[in-house]
Specification:
- The protein is an alpha/beta fold.
- It has one domain: Spore Coat Polysaccharide Biosynthesis Protein SpsA, Chain A, CATH 3.90.550.10.
- 40% of the residues lie in helices and 22% in strands.
- The protein is built from ten helices and eleven strands.
- Strands 1, 2, 3, 4, 5, 6, 8, 10 and 11 form a nine-stranded mixed β-sheet that branches. It has a two-stranded antiparallel sheet with strand order 7-9.
- The radius of gyration is 18 Å and the shape is globular.
- The mean pLDDT is 94.
Amino acid sequence: MLNISIVLYHPDWTQVSNLCEELLRASCTRKIYLVDNSEEKVQKVPISSGKVAYIWNEGKNVGYGKAHNIAIRQSVRWNTPLHLVINADVWIQASDLDLLHDFMTSHPEVGSLMPKVTYPNGELQYLCKLLPTPWDVFARRFLPMKWTQKRNERYELRQTGYDRPMNVPYLSGCFMLLRTEAALKARLFDERYFMYPEDIDLTRTIHRDYLTLYYPAVTIIHDHAKASYHNWKMTWVHSVNMCRYFNKWGWLWDKERRLFNRLTLSQFDMSNK
């Protein structure tokens, strides 16, 4: 069985309802937690199921990771073996969720899993990454793509083809199927981050003791808006939180980053590319 958490902020309730209805069709779904960071509490959740719990954070936007931690702690409390962190703008078929559940159940060495992710038009999203350096973050946001294309393709592991399972240290937070004991061992999401690098932080911590796996046997759709690329306020939020990340792990000197990235590249004979 697994629990699911979706963090909301002024959500499109039609989108949320459609996703929840599909998730509830999966035989593995135990409970869905809707954790709402919006200022106003919704008067009536438009999903009539005892398996859906609505949690309003009293009008406080506590951040992405902290909100998910509220639900993950319920999985810890009730000894639910798996916990899915999923964005409201993601779509997965119920049968595929059951498939992923069965895979995780039979592979206890996997601590976190992300399937293949595409845009609604079918275009692949390159969400398997190396651990970033400060230069990677700066260059991707502020320099012309033609100047950084080769390094960015290496950072996103594009030469792998994304057609096979891969054990990588950074998987996107849009869909994180977590082994609850692995998330607990990693101390859940670091709540010092308001938004953005919490998925890097948690994946790399789990990666120390488990496989953090890209699993392309299942494909999901992510209608990703990339808000921080189009909104200067969100760019500032991203920048501030990435500074917190590098303050924690190291700016120029991060021994674990160098090790994990080298081992990742060596899987695909990309060490010198």
